Amino acid sequence: MTVTHHRRRPTTRRGFTILELLIVIGILLAIGGLVLYNVLGASEKADVKLAKAQIQSFESALEEFKFDMKRWPSEDEGLSVLWSKEKLDAEEDQDKWTGPYLKEPKPKDTWGNEWIYRQPSSVEGRPYDIISPGPDKQEGTEDDITSNDGRVGTDGSDEFGDFSSGTGGG
């Protein structure tokens, strides 16, 4: 009996199919989208925190200004009197001014908007308002950041309402 040996052909792949490539590209795009979404979200939160920190530094500087000048800056003088005495309305006030009250001028917020300073405040019991129009550059919208965030507004709305109804010891 004769034995015939069949040769096996080696199976070789020529490469990826188009379908496999599309699946890999889809997965990479999905992962990239998730990473980008998280990075942009963190950046936006950092910008908001920076704007709030700048408002706090304005508030501290305004307290020092009030201590020296025995008054708050007028709305016409604005926040610029915290770094430049030339912005003062009255010449005699320039002699009392012991600033600068801020280490460096900050005429614009994180998004490049001019800070809005109002004196007197729109909130009862507050001497002034400091407002950043926020990323949309429009005052009066939901993304505004103000020195009155978390305080009771003139319409009686309490922005601390979410916290006051909690179960806390007290």
Can you walk me through this structure?
This protein has one domain (23-149): Glycoprotein, Type 4 Pilin (2-Layer Sandwich). The radius of gyration is 30 Å and the shape is rod-shaped. It has three helices and three strands; from the N terminus they run ααβββα. The chain has a three-stranded antiparallel beta sheet with strand order 1-2-3, with helices on one face. It has helices at residues 18-69, 91-96, 161-164, and strands spanning 116-118, 129-132, 145-146. Residues 152-170 have low confidence and may be disordered. Helix content is 36%, strand content 5%. The longest helix is centred in the first third of the chain and has 52 residues, at 18-69. It is mainly alpha-helical and 170 residues long.
